[in-house]
Amino acid sequence: MATGGNAIRGTRVGAGPMGEQDHGFHAERVAISYWDALGNETVRYFAAGIPEEEIPDTIDSPHSGLPAGRDKENPPAVAKTEPYKTHLAYVKERRTEEEADALLDDALQQLRDRRGGE
Protein backbone atom coordinates (compact mmCIF):
# COMPACT_ATOMS: atom_id res chain seq x y z
CA MET A 1 0.00 0.00 0.00
CA ALA A 2 1.47 3.33 -1.05
CA THR A 3 0.94 6.36 1.14
CA GLY A 4 2.40 9.81 1.00
CA GLY A 5 2.78 12.92 3.08
CA ASN A 6 3.35 13.41 6.78
CA ALA A 7 -0.26 13.52 7.94
CA ILE A 8 -1.47 10.93 10.37
CA ARG A 9 -4.13 8.82 8.75
CA GLY A 10 -7.63 10.10 9.44
CA THR A 11 -6.67 13.70 10.28
CA ARG A 12 -7.16 16.91 8.35
CA VAL A 13 -4.18 18.93 7.32
CA GLY A 14 -3.94 21.91 9.65
CA ALA A 15 -6.35 20.46 12.20
CA GLY A 16 -5.39 21.11 15.76
CA PRO A 17 -6.60 22.23 19.16
CA MET A 18 -7.08 25.87 18.09
CA GLY A 19 -10.52 27.21 17.24
CA GLU A 20 -11.52 29.63 14.51
CA GLN A 21 -10.83 32.68 16.68
CA ASP A 22 -7.25 31.55 17.17
CA HIS A 23 -6.84 31.24 13.39
CA GLY A 24 -7.95 34.84 12.86
CA PHE A 25 -11.24 34.14 11.09
CA HIS A 26 -13.07 36.49 13.45
CA ALA A 27 -10.57 39.34 13.43
CA GLU A 28 -11.96 42.80 12.77
CA ARG A 29 -11.86 43.55 9.06
CA VAL A 30 -12.52 46.47 6.76
CA ALA A 31 -14.19 45.97 3.36
CA ILE A 32 -12.68 47.96 0.48
CA SER A 33 -14.47 48.06 -2.90
CA TYR A 34 -12.62 48.22 -6.21
CA TRP A 35 -14.17 48.89 -9.64
CA ASP A 36 -12.79 48.07 -13.08
CA ALA A 37 -13.48 49.86 -16.37
CA LEU A 38 -16.41 47.53 -17.13
CA GLY A 39 -18.17 48.43 -13.87
CA ASN A 40 -17.46 45.17 -12.05
CA GLU A 41 -17.13 45.59 -8.29
CA THR A 42 -14.65 43.54 -6.29
CA VAL A 43 -14.64 43.65 -2.50
CA ARG A 44 -11.40 42.89 -0.65
CA TYR A 45 -11.09 42.60 3.11
CA PHE A 46 -8.18 43.97 5.09
CA ALA A 47 -7.35 43.90 8.80
CA ALA A 48 -8.96 46.82 10.64
CA GLY A 49 -5.66 47.99 12.13
CA ILE A 50 -3.73 48.16 8.85
CA PRO A 51 -2.48 51.67 7.94
CA GLU A 52 -4.26 53.34 5.01
CA GLU A 53 -1.05 53.60 2.97
CA GLU A 54 -0.61 49.81 3.02
CA ILE A 55 -3.98 49.21 1.32
CA PRO A 56 -3.35 49.06 -2.45
CA ASP A 57 -5.00 51.68 -4.67
CA THR A 58 -5.36 49.25 -7.59
CA ILE A 59 -5.73 45.49 -7.96
CA ASP A 60 -6.41 43.14 -10.87
CA SER A 61 -10.12 42.45 -11.16
CA PRO A 62 -10.90 38.72 -10.92
CA HIS A 63 -13.99 39.28 -13.11
CA SER A 64 -12.31 40.75 -16.15
CA GLY A 65 -8.55 40.69 -15.53
CA LEU A 66 -8.46 44.48 -15.94
CA PRO A 67 -6.95 46.84 -13.38
CA ALA A 68 -9.49 47.94 -10.76
CA GLY A 69 -9.28 51.08 -8.63
CA ARG A 70 -10.99 52.40 -5.53
CA ASP A 71 -12.61 55.35 -7.33
CA LYS A 72 -15.96 54.20 -8.72
CA GLU A 73 -16.43 57.24 -10.95
CA ASN A 74 -12.93 57.09 -12.51
CA PRO A 75 -11.73 53.47 -12.72
CA PRO A 76 -8.35 52.73 -14.34
CA ALA A 77 -8.45 52.75 -18.13
CA VAL A 78 -8.35 49.57 -20.14
CA ALA A 79 -4.82 48.84 -21.37
CA LYS A 80 -4.42 49.35 -25.09
CA THR A 81 -3.09 46.29 -26.83
CA GLU A 82 -1.60 46.21 -30.27
CA PRO A 83 -3.45 44.07 -32.77
CA TYR A 84 -1.71 41.02 -34.13
CA LYS A 85 0.50 41.87 -37.07
CA THR A 86 0.74 39.57 -40.02
CA HIS A 87 4.00 38.83 -41.77
CA LEU A 88 2.92 41.09 -44.62
CA ALA A 89 2.58 44.05 -42.22
CA TYR A 90 6.18 43.52 -41.05
CA VAL A 91 7.38 43.29 -44.66
CA LYS A 92 5.75 46.65 -45.42
CA GLU A 93 7.65 48.23 -42.50
CA ARG A 94 11.06 47.11 -43.74
CA ARG A 95 13.58 49.70 -44.80
CA THR A 96 14.50 50.30 -48.37
CA GLU A 97 17.76 48.89 -49.73
CA GLU A 98 19.36 52.34 -49.65
CA GLU A 99 18.49 52.83 -45.95
CA ALA A 100 19.79 49.34 -45.14
CA ASP A 101 23.07 50.03 -46.95
CA ALA A 102 23.48 53.35 -45.12
CA LEU A 103 22.86 51.68 -41.74
CA LEU A 104 25.37 48.93 -42.53
CA ASP A 105 28.00 51.45 -43.65
CA ASP A 106 27.45 53.51 -40.51
CA ALA A 107 27.78 50.44 -38.25
CA LEU A 108 30.96 49.31 -40.03
CA GLN A 109 32.45 52.79 -39.75
CA GLN A 110 31.75 52.87 -35.99
CA LEU A 111 33.47 49.49 -35.59
CA ARG A 112 36.50 50.70 -37.56
CA ASP A 113 36.68 53.84 -35.41
CA ARG A 114 36.64 51.78 -32.22
CA ARG A 115 39.40 49.44 -33.47
CA GLY A 116 41.65 52.28 -34.45
CA GLY A 117 40.84 52.84 -38.11
CA GLU A 118 41.98 49.65 -39.79
Radius of gyration: 29 Å
Percent strand equals 15-25%
Based on CA inertia axes, which overall geometry fits? elongated
What fraction, in percent, of the residue positions are helical? 25-40%
Pfam family, one: RbpA
Function: Binds to RNA polymerase (RNAP), stimulating transcription from principal, but not alternative sigma factor promoters.
Region (Disordered): 1-20, 54-85
GO biological process, one term: positive regulation of DNA-templated transcription
Summarize this structure as a short list of keywords or feature phrases.
118 residues, alpha+beta, four-stranded antiparallel β-sheet, 3 helices, 4 strands, 25% helix, elongated
Task: Please characterize this protein's 3D structure.
The chain has a four-stranded antiparallel beta sheet with strand order 2-1-4-3, with no helix packed on it. A hairpin with a 6-residue loop joins strand 3 and strand 4. The chain is 25% helix and 18% strand. The protein has three helices and four strands. Among the domains are: 29-69; 81-117.
Give the topology.
Layout: H1 20-23, E1 29-36, E2 41-47, E3 58-60, E4 67-69, H2 87-93, H3 97-115
Antiparallel strand pairs: 1-2, 1-4, 3-4
Function: Binds to RNA polymerase (RNAP), stimulating transcription from principal, but not alternative sigma factor promoters.
Region (Disordered): 1-20, 54-85
Protein name: RNA polymerase-binding protein RbpA
